[in-house]
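Aim 2, interim progress: modelling of the farnesyl diphosphate-bound target.
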Amino acid sequence: MSLRAAPRRVLPPDASVPGAPPRHVAIIMDGNGRWARARHLPRVMGHRKGVEAVRRTIEAAPDLGIEVLTLYAFSSENWRRPADEVSDLMGLLRHYLRTEIAELHANGVRLRFIGDTARLSEDVVAMLEQAAALTASNRRLTLVLALNYGSHDELIRVARALAADAAAGRLDPAAIDAGAIEARLDTAGLPPPDLIIRTSGEQRLSNFLMWQAAYAELVFTDELWPDFDAASLKRAVDTFGQRDRRYGGR
Ligand code: FPP
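Predicted structure of the complex, ligand included:
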């Protein structure tokens, strides 16, 4: 027997356990428009079908061992879309919150929101806050909706908060570390994403969880978001299971 100990991989404190399912899965839901165009339907139909895929994904996630599911529902850049599409997306969100919070709550889903709520309508913000309060102690799944979210915007808000604390004498600039930044991110208290999935064949992050994704595994699938289902999620989780996560070590 060799007396030399096997090299022990030193993982960062928030690293996932090797072989374990991803604790936090984040999804860039892309391809609603192309799904509709392929069927000669208006884009809003693609978004409506996208909400059905949202339902299927939330239902399937806990059985795969996923604890946190983050969905990129509206980016800080999506305001550049035509006004009627923005209004359709906000209408779908409103309808979703009005009709599905009770069922999510009954199913043990905790709701959280990331993004800058300042630009969202007051009634939507009120529903988001009520939903978060109602479901705060649920543990089966944490569903994080990214709304008016963009990493650049999030990091600008973090920088402003740090600068304000430093200017007020509450924070020594030399003491700013990763923990100080993470405590001010919209995702404070959540584990970083282990797996980021993007549908529709596009292969980029598009300003999504850029700080948090430092060690995330990326899985790109050609499926369009309205076609995404439990089997698609399982395939992505299986692909994640084949990856060797080294976190910069060896
Ligand atoms: C990207 O497809 C999708 C979006 C910008 C919005 C995602 C929204 C939903 C799935 C519905 C609302 C969600 C909730 C939680 C109520 P795209 O329009 O960019 O598609 P394309 O690239 O094919 O045009």
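The two ends are 23 Å apart (CA to CA). The beta strands are 24-28, 68-75, 109-114, 141-149, 195-198, 217-220.
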